[in-house]
Design brief:
Elements: H1 3-22, E1 27-33, E2 39-45, H2 49-55, E3 57-59, E4 85-89, E5 95-96, E6 103-112, H3 122-135, E7 138-144, E8 146-152, H4 169-174, H5 176-188, E9 193-198, E10 204-209, H6 214-234, E11 237-240, E12 256-262, E13 265-266, H7 279-299, H8 305-308, E14 318-323, E15 328-333, H9 340-343, E16 345-348, H10 357-374, H11 391-397, E17 400-401, H12 406-414, H13 417-441, H14 447-454
Parallel strand pairs: 1-6, 14-15
Antiparallel strand pairs: 1-2, 3-4, 4-6, 5-6, 7-12, 8-10, 8-11, 9-10, 12-13, 12-16, 14-17, 15-16
Helix pairs in contact: 1-2, 3-10, 5-6, 6-10, 7-10, 7-12, 10-13, 12-13
Bound molecules: glutamic acid and magnesium ion (MG).
Magnesium ion binds at residues 147, 199, 206.
Length: 458
């Protein structure tokens, strides 16, 4: 980031100030998401936006080591929290927050004071990997599905604020004013909502959005969640995106849909491989499947994540893939006949919303690209719930359970060369420090205690 780039940013921001003021904006928030999956913020009065755009807002590098409960993990190299980073807002995305009047939001990226990119910034990492794909003529399209539960405000317990049966019109009726305001707010913010529905678990709802480029998709997932929380507050509801709100129930997933494109053609359709995958689409998917157990340390990043990954709960607890198979960690979606050219995609079901979406999409690109480079082949798809297969059948088909603890996925992440190379030693070291600190925190906790501790944090 040199002086000319800073001057350009300042000039762009100066132009934005008047337009934002005319829309009633008085303050601007800029954010980054940390390695524990929590989005942290700095904000400025609108008049300071040009200054923010050029020079950023100061923030401590210690945020790389923040855990879910705002403790700070021990630095991997023993360094002290000396130094300062700058959160630089990305003026390509400026959102007037419809449910938080007077506020605008701009996703941020973290730079060193020298102007160099901060090695621990997930959004800059994702940007770099998207550029690497583009250098091979490939773009990715992605979307994060958001599941959440609404709870009655005023208590830390989970008290469902929508009561009708799963997927029922009755439950939609319970929340119809809330849902209308939510859909209005998302639409006003430029989010293309594809669908909203009551989900399976008590008080659970879901919204799915259109696929976008990976950076935009990660930003959208942060924005959608912020909007859901904001609209909920206005309706006296508390929102939980936690993978396990209630021990006995089905959890909240954060399923990620991805497709690859070359010259306007979807590489997940129209090819000669299984279910119409092209050779590149198949090897990308195979790379994803091969590294998925290690990638769980990013996509299912909390001790609580593993409470959700129960077989026969649609969470994708087995390391396998299959056509429209909701129990496979990778669900191949081809769409209805005739729509595959634009609709076909691969859904990663085993991830949840405690994950940092920038790191998740960066990890997916890294391992998928490794699969393409190596020409990795997909195993046979699975057409049943793997939970019904005997131990022998699972073994002969090479189907394993995904890691059943953060401990296991962290060990696999630590041993994964592709992810080590993509994330770089600083970021990898911070992620490992945060994972270890959270595991230690919960070393003797019961499942109920883990669920309670993560219920309202993200
Ligand atoms: N709530 C389920 C999960 O834990 C997913 C339900 C669905 O297939 O949408 O991921
Ligand atoms: Mg769902």
């Amino acid at each position: 980031m040199d002086v000319t780039a800073r001057e350009d940013r300042k000039a762009r921001a100066e132009q934005l100030v008047d337009a934002l003021a005319a829309d009633g904006v008085v303050a601007v928030a800029t954010t980054f998401t940390d390695n524990a999956g929590i989005t942290r913020v700095k904000s400025v009065p609108l008049a300071r936006l040009p200054q923010l755009a050029a020079w950023g807002a100061g923030t401590t590098p210690s945020f790389d080591l923040f855990t879910f409960n705002d403790s700070i993990a021990a630095a991997p190299d023993g360094s002290t929290p000396v130094g300062d980073l700058r959160i630089m807002p990305d003026l390509d995305r400026v959102v007037r927050l419809a449910a938080q009047p007077g506020w605008a939001w701009i996703p941020g990226e973290r730079y060193e004071q020298s102007g160099e990119p901060h090695a621990g910034c997930g959004r800059l990492l994702l940007r770099r990997l998207v550029d690497d794909l583009a250098a091979q003529g490939i773009t990715m399209s992605a979307a994060v599905e958001v599941e959440w539960v609404v709870s009655v405000a005023g208590t830390d317990d989970f008290v469902p604020a929508a009561l009708g049966p799963a997927y029922s019109l009755a439950r939609l009726g319970d929340v119809s004013d809330y849902a209308r305001e939510l859909l209005e707010a998302l639409t006003a913010q430029g989010v293309e909502v594809e669908q909203f529905h009551p989900e399976y678990a008590a008080g659970q709802l879901e919204v799915s959005v259109a696929a976008e480029d990976p950076l935009a998709a990660a930003d959208t997932s942060i924005l959608v969640r912020d909007t859901i929380r904001a609209v909920g507050r206005r309706h006296g509801m508390r929102t939980s995106f936690s993978p396990k709100v209630d021990i006995s129930g089905v959890g909240n997933g954060g399923h990620v849909h991805v497709s690859l494109w070359r010259d306007g053609h979807n590489l997940m359709a129209g090819g000669d491989a299984e279910f119409g995958l092209t050779a590149e689409g198949a090897s990308f998917t195979a790379g994803l499947l091969e590294h998925l157990p290690a990638l769980m340390a990013i996509g299912a990043p909390s001790v609580a994540s593993y409470l959700r990954l129960v077989p026969s709960h649609w969470a994708g607890a087995y390391s396998c893939w299959g056509l429209e198979n909701r129990e496979a960690a990778l669900r191949m979606v081809t769409g209805s006949a005739g729509s595959d050219a634009w609709a076909a995609n691969v859904e990663v079901k085993c991830f949840d919303l405690l994950a940092n979406p920038y790191l998740v999409l960066a990890g997916i690109i890294a391992v998928g690209s490794a699969g393409m480079a190596a020409g990795t082949e997909l195993p046979a798809p699975v057409e049943v719930d793997p939970a019904v297969l005997s131990e022998e059948e699972l073994q002969s088909r090479g189907i394993d359970r995904l890691p059943q603890s953060l401990q296991t996925s962290t060990v696999l992440f630590e041993a994964d060369d592709v992810l080590a190379e993509a994330f770089g030693s600083d970021l990898r070291g911070s992620i490992l420090a945060v994972r270890h600190a959270e595991m230690e925190h919960f070393a003797t906790a019961t499942e109920e205690e883990v669920a309670a501790a993560l219920r309202w944090t993200h």
